[in-house]
Amino acid sequence: MRIWAVANQKGGVGKTTSVVALGGLLAERGKRVLVVDLDPHGSLTSWFGHDPDTISHSVFDLFQYQGKVPEGLPAQLITDTSCEGLSLLPASTALATLERKMVGVEGMGLIISRALAQLWDDFDYVLLDNTPSLGVLMVNALAAAQHLIIPVQTEFLAIKGLERMLHTLEMIMRSQKNPLSYTIVPTLFDRRTQASMKSLNQLRKSYPDSLWRFAIPVDTRFRDASQAGVTPSAFDSETHGVRAYARLLNDLTEAASVRPERRRHG
Ligand code: ADP
Ligand code: MG
Predict the structure, then answer these.
(1) Within-domain flag for 264
(2) What tens digit of pLDDT does each residue of 75-109 get?
(3) What is the pLDDT of residue 246?
(4) What is the pLDDT of residues 51-82, one digit of tens each?
(5) pTM of the prediction?
(6) CA of 114 to the centre of ligand 1 (A)
(7) What average pLDDT is seen over the chain?
């Protein structure tokens, strides 16, 4: 099982879109894929037609057992999606109350790791979609992930936010035994605008080692796909956006094949 987290402390940068686009492409390539919604807003959950306000079982259930994960529970929470081979562990808006509830609970940062350990043989890839705020959910994602994907909108202010995010990450990772590798992915790129070109050049200068070599272009088909409740590649496999994600996926899987796997938490 390979576990990738998609995170950025800024909203609207393409995190959820990246999770669905990459997850859909992996499933089309015959992989067994699980996407996990760790955002109380539940955009990933809504994408596949569930209402995070009223859903009866979700990731939230995993946090109800004092840091332990009952045997068999994670599998019960998973549902199918419109895409064959792609499963969803949905979010509910109740997740927003976790921060208060989990203070001082032992093992609270390892709940997702423990849940995924139970599913180790059931999935080839797990993609964790994250909330923009750094709290117990994000800590869980960072502890479980083997690699981090950081989508960054190609505009000046977003790059400022990236600096802050990487700083926080470094602090968290210092407390973990294994450092987490990451790939910065420029998103919402529009080559016709000065702002996009300038910020891409800035990113290249500042992060030569961790920046993906291409960028995800602006493509209105992503929104159409989410409205239709299907993955972008199922909606239209030939758009610029989908082709860019396919290229990103090739680079990520190639890099992953030479990276040692992080130890799993039991
Ligand atoms: P996040 O999860 O970081 O908040 P989303 O993936 O939900 O961001 O994207 C925010 C909005 O931008 C959505 O309406 C989505 O459809 C749109 N969007 C995301 N990526 C692109 C893109 N490459 N081109 C055009 N629109 C995009
Ligand atoms: Mg999102």
Answers:
(1) no
(2) 999 999 999 999 999 999 999 999 888 778 888 99
(3) 98
(4) 999 999 999 999 999 999 999 999 999 999 99
(5) 0.96
(6) 30
(7) 93
Mutational test site, ligand 1, from 155, 212, 219, 222, max ligand atoms within 8 Å of CB: 222
> Is ligand 1 within 6 A of the CB of residue 130?
no
What does each C-alpha distance from 111 to 9, 42, 232 come to in angstroms? 21, 19, 30
Strand pairing partners for 35?
Answer: 88, 127
Total structural domains within the chain? 1
Residue 153 sits in which domain range?
2-257
Ligand nearest to the CA of 241: 1
Q: Is residue 263 part of a domain?
A: no
Helix residue ranges, H only, 67-216 = 73-77, 98-101, 111-118, 136-144, 156-174, 194-206
59 CA distance to ligand 1 centroid (A)?
23
Q: Would you tell me how many other CB atoms lie within 10 Å of the CB of residue 91?
A: 28
Cα of 15 from ligand 2 centre, angstroms? 5
| Residue 14 in domain | yes
